[in-house]
Design brief:
Strand order of the largest sheet: 1-2-5-6-7
Structural class: alpha+beta
Order of helices and strands: EEEEEEEH
Low-confidence stretches: none
Strand content: 35-45%
Number of helices: 1
Number of strands: 7
Largest sheet: 5 strands, mixed, barrel
Oligomer: single chain
């Protein structure tokens, strides 16, 4: 059994990390933090916005903030992370702050999407009621406006 891991971290546009001298990797998924050492069993998991840590064979710790990724471990030595966005850095506190900002952005986007889904659902129900019971409900004079946050482009 080999005593090192091959770690790759990629985004759609670039390879952030491609090293074969890694002694340990630490990551986080929905169930919590976990570690990977050489000889680890096969694994595939989804990573939320989080900081991935690894230690090279020389003992130096390195860090990468990732936004929503997939981590796989294969053959007990290959760790591959494919993520939407990643930032390599040496300052763990700064990367943790970036991850918090990423999580806040994702929470806001989820909240906006849920609000739009509720509005769409209500429109569909009203339209079905108008179809099923014509003449009982007033016809709308104009389409209902879609409320958008000031940061979003209108359609």
């Amino acid at each position: 059994m080999t005593r090192t891991l091959h770690l790759t971290i990629t985004t759609p546009s670039t390879v952030l990390v491609d090293r074969t001298d890694i002694s340990a990797v630490r990551a986080e998924d929905a169930s919590g933090g976990f570690g990977i050492l050489p000889g680890h069993t096969e694994l595939m998991t989804v990573l939320p916005a989080s900081v991935v840590r690894w230690r090279a064979a020389d003992g130096v710790a390195r860090f990468c903030a990732v936004r929503s990724g997939v981590l796989t471990v294969s053959r007990g030595r290959t760790v591959a992370i494919a993520c939407r966005q990643g930032v390599i850095g040496d300052d763990l506190a700064e990367l943790e702050a970036q991850v918090q900002a990423m999580r806040a952005d994702e929470t806001d986007a989820d909240r906006r999407a849920r609000g739009e889904q509720v509005q769409l659902h209500a429109r569909v129900v009203r339209q079905m009621m108008r179809y099923l019971h014509p003449g009982e409900l007033p016809e709308p004079t104009s389409p209902e406006p879609v409320r958008r946050d000031s940061g979003e482009a209108g359609s």
